[in-house]
Write a structure and sequence with these properties.
about 10% strand; about 230 residues; 4 strands; 4-stranded parallel sheet; alpha/beta
Length: about 230
């Protein structure tokens, strides 16, 4: 068991004393994800990724940050964003609190896109804290380029929907999946330029693509933890 939320304090102490690294994921729990995926899609992916990486690295993982900097989605009911400053302050304080217990490095698995820049800026100011941008991993990009059929996309799209089909198929309703209108969407998604809330074509999603995406993300994150923990 490596989820801190499920452990007693003395059970947490033992692996930390033995040099375990720490994981903290960023994944929204209240952000629209089209008509076919739930609002907590990012949080589901974040917890899944923490579990899988922890199994392979012996890391302890803290509950994900489920509120963050998501200004592009606020036109859709229920979607919540923090200001960039508030998100950075939250991430900074939680990260420093985790590092107070002296794990072998803190690895922040960032499942977002709009959170990438503020998270990287925040973590660059903290010793032994490492930013792991999940969507920028080498293996993930290779899989995305090889298997992706959509012309554009980055949200509730072909690849994200495929990933969810692999890790949480029960929450995906492919009968409601709708592609966004053709062309690039500048910045903010609205109910006019992306009526379904998707950016990309989730109708192209498949379990096979999702399994490849899932495997690639885990391998990228495990590599980052195993290589950087040695320097922490």
């Amino acid at each position: 068991m490596s989820a801190v939320a499920d452990m007693t304090w003395d059970a947490v102490e033992a692996p930390l004393s033995g040099g375990a690294p720490a994981l903290l994921a960023i994944g929204a729990a209240s952000k629209e994800h089209g008509l076919h995926l739930p609002m907590n899609t990012d949080a589901v992916q974040a917890e899944w990724l923490c579990r899988e990486v922890a199994k392979r690295t012996g890391a302890l993982w803290w509950p994900p940050l489920t509120y963050g900097f998501y200004p592009a989605f606020t036109d859709f009911p229920g979607s919540i964003t923090l200001t960039g400053e508030t998100f950075q302050a939250l991430l900074h304080e939680v990260s420093c609190e985790i590092l107070r217990w002296k794990p072998n490095g803190l690895f922040v698995l960032d499942t977002g896109v709009s959170t990438l820049k503020p998270a990287a800026q925040t973590l660059a100011r903290i010793d032994n804290a490492f930013h792991v941008p999940v969507v920028e991993g080498r293996r993930y990009r290779e899989v995305a380029n090889r298997l992706g059929e959509q012309v554009t996309g980055s949200h509730a799209d072909e690849l994200e929907t495929s990933h969810m089909l692999a890790i949480a198929p029960g929450v995906v309703d492919m009968t409601r999946a709708k592609a966004s209108p053709p062309g690039e969407i500048p910045g903010t998604l609205t109910r006019q330029n992306a009526p379904s809330g998707s950016y990309g074509d989730p109708t192209l999603a498949s379990l096979e693509k999702g399994e490849a995406v899932a495997t690639a993300k885990v391998k990228d994150c495990v590599e980052a933890v195993q290589s950087l923990a040695k320097t922490a």
